[in-house]
Amino acid sequence: MSTSLNYKSFSKEQQTMDNLEKQLICPICLEMFTKPVVILPCQHNLCRKCASDIFQVEQASNPYLPTRGGTTVASGGRFRCPSCRHEVVLDRHGVYGLQRNLLVENIIDIYKQESTRPERKCDQPMCEEHEDERINIYCLNCEMPTCSLCKVFGAHKDCQVAPLTNVYQRQKSELSDGIAVLVGSNDRVQGIVTQLEETCKTVEECCRRQKEQLCEKFDYLYSVLEERKNEMTQIITRTQEEKLEHVRSLMKKYADHLEAVSKLVESGIQFMEEPEMAVFLQNAKTLLQKITEASKGFQMEKIEDGYENMNQFTVNLSREEKIIREIDFDR
């Protein structure tokens, strides 16, 4: 019976590592992602080299794209994601402008370390109350591992107990599922961060256009409007700083959450390699609580629609010159 349970435990651990490895395979080279790993707007990942190869192939197959000296220009352009066929539009930096997925890179490092780490050996824990008794059962009422004598004569004699192996397998499965949930939620948070970065760019662009329009209108009556023009420009700038400060605070909040989740995932993966069931169960509850809190307790705050709109700063300069100094934004 003991040999069978040990075999099942090893088999399940191996299956977990195999499932994790499948998530780290590049769809192009069919090998484990090679750093740096880039995340596409559709949230799929590629090795940067593979992304560059796809981009070069699609550029070379299009005779209408610009070239330089017979070689396809590597900045700007577009290609399709090999996983979902979503079109990826590159900026002037080309594939080097794609954001790196540091979480995936960290998981790859951890996976490689764990795969090459020699199997740890340790003695089975003994009961503190009965020094000659091994911890071999789990108290369901007190939620802690204990020994058979504690069940018969000790503090757990009126409690319900279960075989250590059964509880070990269940809680280890819960931990594995919790890690999978955290990794999945991290992709969603990463998507929000990408949207916030785009919002920052839009806010800056809207402010830039409004400033240009304002300056053009003030230049018409520059001699008498110079002072007022500076005042109104400062109002726009203050509003821009307030909006950007709010968005950046959200970005920092999500970045801190990503870092915390990454560390929690790293701790979970390392802890799953604990070979001793009793040691594992003595600490699993605390780690599972942290994972539950991280996956359920984080509230994602989004900015309202039209947040980047700056139309409230539009001005009308058709008023008479005698009231020019009273000009204000049309609200």
Report mean pLDDT, rounded to a whole number: 80
Q: Tell me the number of structural domains.
A: 2
**Rg to the nearest angstrom?**
30 Å
- Number of helical regions: 7
- Report the strand count: 9
Folded structure, characterized:
The protein is mostly helical and 331 residues long. The protein has 2 domains: 1-117, Zinc/RING finger domain, C3HC4 (zinc finger) (Herpes Virus-1, 2-Layer Sandwich), CATH 3.30.40.10; 160-331. It is built from 7 helices and 9 strands. It has helices at 2-23, 48-60, 102-116, 148-152, 164-220, 222-272, 277-296, and strands spanning 37-39, 45-47, 67-68, 71-72, 77-80, 87-90, 137-139, 144-146, 161-163. The strands form 4 sheets. The chain has a 3-stranded antiparallel β-sheet. A two-stranded antiparallel ribbon has the order 1-2. Strands 3-4 form a two-stranded antiparallel ribbon. A hairpin with a 4-residue loop joins strand 7 (137-139) and strand 8. Helix 3 (102-116) packs parallel to helix 6 and helix 6 (222-272) runs antiparallel to helix 7. The termini are far apart. Mean pLDDT is 80; it is low at 1-11 and 66-74.
Keyphrases for this structure?
331 residues, mainly alpha, Herpes Virus-1, 2 domains, three-stranded antiparallel sheet, two-stranded antiparallel sheet, 8% strand, elongated, disordered N terminus
What is the topology?
Layout: H1 2-23, E1 37-39, E2 45-47, H2 48-60, E3 67-68, E4 71-72, E5 77-80, E6 87-90, H3 102-116, E7 137-139, E8 144-146, H4 148-152, E9 161-163, H5 164-220, H6 222-272, H7 277-296
Antiparallel strand pairs: 1-2, 3-4, 5-6, 7-8, 7-9
Helix pairs in contact: 3-6, 5-6, 5-7, 6-7
